């Protein structure tokens, strides 16, 4: 059963990246991995459910990569900025663009409601809480700040994915993200 899920997700990831959600054929996809449409429906309900599984996988990978990059930054503040910049920069990846940032919201709705975004939000909230305790950030509501920072990074990535000039927008988006985040710094400490 799990092997079928893995096969279907891998095949769908490839098809959605190459053709887009709308043009990807479920008959071709299932035939490619030697399964029937019944296996797809049994495991995911429908094509939309399969997309949700693919988006979850990629978005989870994105969060993990951003977290790794943030961990190498040296401290919580620089890590927070590095994670946000990394997430925004991932919008340059064609697979991320098409599946997560273009087709995902169009088919699955608001990305901030996706399960994969929840763990990312909680990690950001915990970092903000540590920074508030240390006095590095203003004593604001940590969840509100986390939601706003995550939303800023996500919207910057959506903006980059939707433009025909992503390389031009990336530095502008990261600079603006850093400036917004800097507004949380406790300058009186």
TrEMBL record:
<feature type="domain" description="HTH tetR-type">
    <location>
        <begin position="2"/>
        <end position="62"/>
    </location>
</feature>
<dbReference type="InterPro" id="IPR049484">
    <property type="entry name" value="Rv0078-like_C"/>
</dbReference>
<dbReference type="Pfam" id="PF00440">
    <property type="entry name" value="TetR_N"/>
</dbReference>
<dbReference type="Pfam" id="PF21351">
    <property type="entry name" value="TetR_C_41"/>
</dbReference>
<dbReference type="GO" id="GO:0000976">
    <property type="term" value="F:transcription cis-regulatory region binding"/>
</dbReference>
<protein>
    <submittedName>
        <fullName>Probable transcriptional regulator protein, TetR family</fullName>
    </submittedName>
</protein>
<keyword id="KW-0238">DNA-binding</keyword>
<dbReference type="InterPro" id="IPR001647">
    <property type="entry name" value="HTH_TetR"/>
</dbReference>
<dbReference type="InterPro" id="IPR009057">
    <property type="entry name" value="Homeodomain-like_sf"/>
</dbReference>
<dbReference type="InterPro" id="IPR050109">
    <property type="entry name" value="HTH-type_TetR-like_transc_reg"/>
</dbReference>
<feature type="DNA-binding region" description="H-T-H motif">
    <location>
        <begin position="25"/>
        <end position="44"/>
    </location>
</feature>
<dbReference type="GO" id="GO:0003700">
    <property type="term" value="F:DNA-binding transcription factor activity"/>
</dbReference>
């Amino acid at each position: 059963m799990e092997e079928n899920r893995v096969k279907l997700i891998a095949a769908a990831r490839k098809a959605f990246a190459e053709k887009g959600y709308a043009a990807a054929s479920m008959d071709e996809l299932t035939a490619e991995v030697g399964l029937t449409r019944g296996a797809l429906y049994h495991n995911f309900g429908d094509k939309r459910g399969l997309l949700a599984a693919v988006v979850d996988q990629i978005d989870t990978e994105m969060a993990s990569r951003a977290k790794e990059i943030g961990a190498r930054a040296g401290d919580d503040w620089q890590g927070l900025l590095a994670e946000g910049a990394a997430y925004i920069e991932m919008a340059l990846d064609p697979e991320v663009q098409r599946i997560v940032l273009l087709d995902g919201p169009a088919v699955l709705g608001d990305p901030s409601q996706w399960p994969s975004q929840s763990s990312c939000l909680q990690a950001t909230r915990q970092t903000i809480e540590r920074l508030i305790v240390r006095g590095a950030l203003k004593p604001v509501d940590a969840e509100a700040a986390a939601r706003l920072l995550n939303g800023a990074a996500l919207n910057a990535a959506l903006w980059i994915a939707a433009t025909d000039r992503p390389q031009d927008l990336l530095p502008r988006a990261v600079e603006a993200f850093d400036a917004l985040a800097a507004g949380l710094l406790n300058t009186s400490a």
